Amino acid sequence: MEKAFKRLSLNSNEKEEKLFNFEGFKKSKLPPPPTLPQEFKDVIKSLDGTNLVFLMQKNLSRDDLSRIYNRLSIPMCRVRKGFLCRVRKGFLSSKEKEELLVHCKKPVLFVEPSLDVTKMFMRRLEKKTYSSYVLVSSQWDTIWRRNNLKEGDLVQLWTFRVKENLGFALVRRAEWL
Q1: Could you tell me which residues come within 8 angstroms of residue 100 by beta carbon, excluding any fewer than 6 positions away?
Q2: What average pLDDT does the segment 15-38 reach?
Q3: Assigned superfamily of 30-175
Q4: Hey, is 37 helix, strand or coil?
Q5: For 139-155, what is each residue's pLDDT tens digit?
Q6: What proportions of the chain, in percent to the nearest 5, are helix, strand and coil?
Q7: In this structure, what are the phi and psi dihedrals at residue 35, rounded to the nearest 5 degrees?
Q8: Where does 48-172 show beta strands of DSSP type E?
Q9: Nearest 10 degrees: CA dihedral of 96, 101, 156, 119?
């Protein structure tokens, strides 16, 4: 199935639409940054976490819940624009960038929707038409099953720091709306 998004540009006070087709790529407008549920704030605080930032909101895809891939994708098209600037201007430290280049993965903390804290790895995924980050774990299948995550579930991904280490929190939006 082919998915598409529209790019709008101004041309003599008229909007010109151009259609670009990319498999699995879908543009959407995100609402203003939401508030993280207090239970997640408490868990992150107990880890001595700081620098809490809303990263993205998305519906889980079939690939996110695949036993073959064992990963949660972080498509750059879904990442909030302000966050992208921080990525480019140093959200990842020089050491982290080097670690991703040299070792191809970086260990990160991961707060599950159940509030359990596990370890995952962050990797950069390069494709011909796009690049993204992914959170990978051999236990991802166990994690999403334990949290009863399903294809199409609306989730939010938050980032935080514990000292110099990067962490992520996955919030299942339906649980707190």
Answers
A1: 92, 106, 122, 123, 124
A2: 51
A3: DNA-binding pseudobarrel domain (2.40.330.10)
A4: coil
A5: 999 999 999 999 999 99
A6: 25, 40, 35
A7: -105, 130
A8: 49-59, 71-75, 106-111, 117-126, 131-136, 154-162, 165-172
A9: -70
pLDDT of residue 91: 53
Distance CA(92)–CA(130), nearest Å, equals 19
- The confidence band for 174, taking pLDDT boundaries of 50, 70 and 90, is low
Q: Please indicate whether residue 176 or residue 163 has the higher confidence score (pLDDT).
A: 163
What amino acid occupies position 57? Q
Q: Which residues share a beta bridge with 135? A: 72, 122
Helix (H), strand (E) at residue 20: strand 14-21
Rounded CA-CA distance 119/3 in Å is: 33
The domain ranges of the chain are 30-175
Task: Identify the pLDDT of residue 81.
Answer: 57
